[in-house]
Amino acid sequence: MTDIQSQFRASFVRRWHTNPDLAQTVDTLAGHGGRVARIIIKLWPDASKALLHWALVHDDGESVVGDVPSTTKGATVIHEQERAALDRIWPGLPELTPDEYERLRFADRLDAYMWVKHHAPHVLIGDGWPECRRWLFAQAEALGVAVTL
């Protein structure tokens, strides 16, 4: 049986709460997922249903582990807990092709970069953001899309 309450509650998790420059911006997983899906639709109008599904829910596992900074997410235990929670909330998520996964990863980071640019542009001069910008341009070229940052 689907636990719709968990799916509903996951959308309210606050992003950026551990970042002193962005904690006050009050972004939620629902907002983030919606923007990631919009980015995908704009850049790849023929995106699969599976990719759009993932765009909307890819961070819902954070409803269990919290919004963990991307530098920490590399920690295997946290990543495994987050993925297990995502699988409990959304059982049977469709598999993504490697290309779809790269599109999702790109759209996810592009949304984060654009959020920071909109809410706290002064932060973009450090804290890994210049590297993120370079990565975004390189990935956009690899994926065959053009973006303006």
Structural commentary:
By secondary structure, the protein is mainly α. The protein has a single domain (4-143), classed as Hypothetical protein af1432. It contains 8 helices and 2 strands, in the order αββααααααα. A two-stranded antiparallel sheet has the order 1-2. The radius of gyration is 15 Å and the shape is globular. The model has no long low-confidence stretch (mean pLDDT 90).
Write the layout of secondary structure elements.
Layout: H1 4-10, E1 14-15, E2 27-28, H2 29-43, H3 49-57, H4 62-65, H5 70-73, H6 76-89, H7 98-119, H8 129-143
Antiparallel strand pairs: 1-2
Helix pairs in contact: 2-3, 2-7, 7-8
The poorly predicted ranges are none
One letter per element, helices H and strands E, the order comes to HEEHHHHHHH
Class of secondary structure makeup: mainly alpha
Q: Characterize the main sheet.
A: 2 strands, antiparallel
**Strand order of the biggest β-sheet:** 1-2
Describe the global form: globular
Mean pLDDT: 90
CATH topology: Hypothetical protein af1432
Compute the number of helices: 8
Radius of gyration: 15 Å
CATH architecture: Orthogonal Bundle
Overall number of structural domains: 1
- Counted beta strands: 2
CATH class: Mainly Alpha
Q: Give the percentage of residues in beta strands.
A: under 5%
Concise account of the structure shown:
With about 150 residues, this protein is an all-alpha fold. The protein is built from eight helices and two strands.
